[in-house]
Amino acid sequence: MDKYDIVIGLEIHAQLRTESKMFCTCDNYSVGAGPNKNTCPICLGMPGMLPVPNKKAIEWTYLLGMALGAKVAEKFCFERKNYFYPDLPKAYQITSSTMPPIIGGSVEIDDNDVLKKIRINHVHLEEDAGKLIHPKIGEYSLVDLNRAGTPLLEIVTEPDLRSPREARIFVQDLRSILRYLGISDANMEQGNLRCDANISLKPQGQKELGTKVEVKNMNSFKMIERALEHEVKRQEEILSENKKIVQETRGWDDAKGKTLGQRSKEEANDYRYFPEPDIPSIEPNKDNSIDLKEIKNWLPELPKEKRIRFETEYSLSKQDADNLTSDLDLARYFEQTLAEIPQVAGNDEIKKQKAKKLANWLITELLAKLNGQGISILDCKIKHQNFAVLIEKIDSGKISGKIAKEIFSEMFVSGRGVEEIIKEKGLSLISDEKEIETIIRAVISENTASVQDYKSGKEKAFGYLVGQVMAKTKGQANPQIVNKLLKEFLDKE
Ligand SMILES: [Zn+2]
């Protein structure tokens, strides 16, 4: 791509995890409820019903605005967006995009150490529609209105993104912020975080934007990047043949690996927006029921702040800190486990040392297992205290790396304690110097060439001999004692 500039703007929908729906008291979490069980006359859109806005949803909208460094609007208005669709019983959706509650703000993304501020145009609050189900057999469709009226935030960016990769990173960062705030599960696969993209190409350097295409149905981070990459290629081909891009909505078909045309773009006034007559406008600075100062107090340490703290407080590399803080629960697991390791409290040097070791174990071993088996860190069976004991045993040379991995695997499955597993599996280390000496003698006599190499200054040979001793003890010799004794022996030889 050197002939065209890519311009991408995103519209992201995040379902809020409030207890009740946006305008009624129905349960917002209808997991397990049968179709249409979680409904009432309000969310079913019966005539004459009065919607009452969910205070928590409004407060959380302001909280997100504060986290994005945005401006809280003096006044915002719910309005009706009129359209007919079978999953929308009222034939209008209550939204707030014309006078939104949150204006501006930004998210700073980090693409391989290149920092870039992505501006937010606005955030508005609205209700979701129901779901249509199209059975494979039979010529009919079904509707489930459990989702109708659930609270949704729509986050609209400025067209600041310049590559499909940047778009993917932005959505990942936004997901982290939503989860840190605790206001949304923000899970793309489960549909409580959804992303649509507007993408256009223009000749490099040209100011005027090209015709944009809206891409929908991207249900994972990978799909965002793949779909937009495909769309860049498709538009590039059209433009290079001097043809025109059609302004339209296209859906991503992941199995086919391409976007397919769905419908040409409606004009905004097709929706006949007008203020929702049943809900007064909301003015947070005048309305006593909204306390912006109090909401500001709810702001937690955000992902970027936590990452920077992990780098300084624990001397972790940026990448390790990034890995640990990408998931708030993992970051918590890390800090709670670290606190259980003796000597960590009050000693910065030891704290940094142990933090590095623990971070390595969490990132390379634990995350690999969790991701491999699709388990959340919240369901991890290894208790903080047991993980701390494991790290301590490795560090003090009481167990070798090999045995540690064996114990770790067992802990991961059963959640049992370290000592219990060592006892049961007979994994205790050979620390008896006499026993180790005998093995060292055998290894030296069997590997005279390596002994000569070591004597002529080849440091690698020492590691090889240590490995031989460990192999003969099936990894059960205390590595510190092996190192010490082997050195003594070789220097004597
Ligand atoms: Zn309801």
What radius of gyration results from the CA coordinates?
30 Å
Largest β-sheet summary: 10 strands, mixed
Number of domains: 3
Give the total of beta strands.
15
Structural class: alpha+beta
Overall 3D form: elongated
Oligomer: single chain
H/E topology pattern = EHEEEEEEEEEHEEHEEEHHHHHHHHHHHH
List ligands, each type once: zinc ion
Task: State the end-to-end distance.
Answer: 65 Å
Number of helices: 15
Mean pLDDT: 92
Q: List low-confidence stretches.
A: none
The proportion of strand residues reads: 15-25%
Written description of the protein model:
By secondary structure, the chain is an alpha+beta fold. It has 15 helices and 15 strands. The strands form three sheets. Strands 1, 2, 5, 6, 7, 10, 11, 12, 13 and 14 form a ten-stranded mixed beta sheet that branches. α3 links the parallel β12 and β13. α5 crosses α6, α6 crosses α8 and α14 packs across α15. The termini are far apart. The site of zinc ion (ZN) has 8 residues, from loops.
